[in-house]
Automatic annotation (TrEMBL):
Alphabetized NCBIfam families for the sequence: B_ant_repeat
Lineage of the species this protein comes from: Bacteria, Bacillati, Bacillota, Clostridia, Peptostreptococcales
InterPro entries tied to this protein: Chlamydia_OmcB, DUF11_rpt
Superkingdom of origin: Bacteria
Protein name: Cell surface protein
């Protein structure tokens, strides 16, 4: 038996434009005061049947907030030294899986009476044809908004409370 008139196709994806990553962004507060801490959460989902790699994350932080160092978490694990404004690689995402990125920022005094807008970007390379170089894909997340109140000071509850030392018993001799 002999096979003839065969065409080989080296396209290995069923998605012509390479849109295989979904990016969603959330903020924990819709309203905040100056010096309040905001937590941003970004969910990056691989919607394809293939593992993706070399995924780069970057956040465009508003001039009305400042990133708090060493607060970046990827899938719940603290990643010291990473800065969302500079961007960083989040590695591979298995098929139909996701990575959750979070970080904290503080509301600056120049933000009073303002709306803080924030979004993030994911960059990755997608190769839809083995004969061609990969295409760089950029996906922007949805925008999230926080209204900043006029109030400059807010009462904060401190979660790390100190315990008073135990009283030592002193015996007085009569």
């Amino acid at each position: 038996m002999r096979i003839t008139k065969t065409t080989f196709n080296d396209v290995f994806s069923n998605d012509a434009n390479g849109s295989i990553i979904k990016v969603e962004k959330y903020v924990d507060k819709k309203c905040a005061s100056v010096f309040e801490i905001l937590t941003y959460t970004i969910i990056v989902t691989n919607t394809s049947r293939y593992k993706t790699g070399n995924i780069f994350f970057k956040d465009y932080i508003s001039k009305y907030i400042e990133f708090i160092n060493n607060t970046v978490k990827v899938n719940g694990i603290i990643k010291r030294g990473l800065d969302p404004q500079q961007g960083f690689y989040i590695g591979r995402i298995d098929a139909s899986c996701k990575k959750i990125i979070s970080f904290k920022s503080v509301v600056l005094p120049n933000s009073a009476h303002r709306i803080i807008k924030n979004s993030a970007n994911i960059y990755y390379y997608y190769k839809c044809n083995l004969d061609k170089f990969p295409t760089r894909i950029s996906i922007e997340s949805n925008r999230v908004y926080t209204n900043v109140n006029k109030i400059v000071f807010k009462q904060l509850n401190i979660s790390n409370t100190l315990k008073a030392p135990k009283k030592s018993k002193r015996y007085i001799k009569k």
